Task: structure prediction
Amino acid sequence: MDKIKENIQEILKDIKKYSPYPDKVKFIAVTKYVGIPEIEEILKNKVYNLGENRVQLLSEKYLYFKDKNIENINWNFIGNLQKNKVKYIAEFISLIHSVNKLSLAKEIDKRAGEWNKKIDILIEINIAGEESKEGYKIDDFNSEILEYLKFKNLNVIGLMTMAPYTKDEKILRDVFSTLKKIKDDLNKKYFDNRLTELSMGMSGDYKIALEEGATIIRIGTKIFK
Ligand SMILES: *Cc1c(COP(=O)(O)O)cnc(C)c1O
Result:
């Protein structure tokens, strides 16, 4: 468990070192690989933004801490979300990073309305256009964008991407800087600067993502090894 503390401290230091605006950066501890003891250790280190990619496991972990009256956790959904499972997380989810279809957004809007709340979402963009990746191709998002401006119970607060699995720094940098450019364009054309978040960067590439303007990094593996 000492490792967890050391690794978190290193990540927090890297945010200061690599980000042009470190005060804006949120670090999401991705807990999908681990159980309750590791999560408790993360919370002890004052990291309260947690990320999960499976509805079932997320719900179990949420309930465990709710039963203990630990209420200060911000739960992030970072995986591929099936429409029919939105109802299980709508009550408590802080941010859904991975909206990649209009039908999914419609469902989130509907369920948020049932709880009388607004749910923050990010649009997942597939920059590299890899067929294997989830996420909108930018042209497909552009053709649906006006629909996103009509929702009552959804706040679109930014964009998310997953970089391709490579160590090639140039490719990674291109992906992250392209996402930033897309966000800036969308802000000018449609969102009146309401898109504030760029969720990009994982254990292997977060330093580059920070340099290119990430405001949210999602880190799992590095915390635990
Ligand atoms: C698992 C996962 C992460 C964390 O990846 P690591 O390489 O373990 O840091 C980040 N984002 C998403 C969408 C994930 O599924």
